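REVIEWER CHECKLIST
Item 1: Sequence provided? yes
Item 2: Single chain? yes
Item 3: Sequence as submitted:
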Amino acid sequence: MQIYLYLKSSHIFLLFFILNLLGCKNNASFEREQEVINYLQKIHSVELSDQAIVIMLQTNFCGACTEDVLSFIGKSISNVRIPIHLVLADDSMKIVGQLKDFEHVNVLIDKDFSLERYGLRYPTDLFFLIDHQSIRYWSFIEESHFKSIRRQLEKLEP
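Item 4: Structure as written out by the authors:
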């Protein structure tokens, strides 16, 4: 009888564990997904009918942090062949100059502070992989997430 109860409770635990794993995603949905889509379409007239990468740089924060992010982005997007929309919170010429030579990069400047109006002003830079007007993957762009973002980009490479 004790063996039967043990097996039954272990099955319940295993079932609970599996259901819990299925309910979790590695990357939870972005809380402001519709705002990102609306911002890109209404403010910058960006067409999001296929896959695209959106990188939002909060350029007027930490300068040293921005250098690390720019270096990471420059190394990571060199082989990507889908459109990349780079949203800058201001028109920092240094940043525009560093990224304008990449193919498929569309630099968008937030001239009228629309990021704030759409609730997209964050203290950290953002990376989005968009697929048919839906955010398939997102991440803050910080060193602890570089590996995860790079894995997502490698999936896109031919």
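Item 5: Key structural point noted by reviewer: DSSP finds six helices and five strands in the chain.
Item 6: Recommendation: ____
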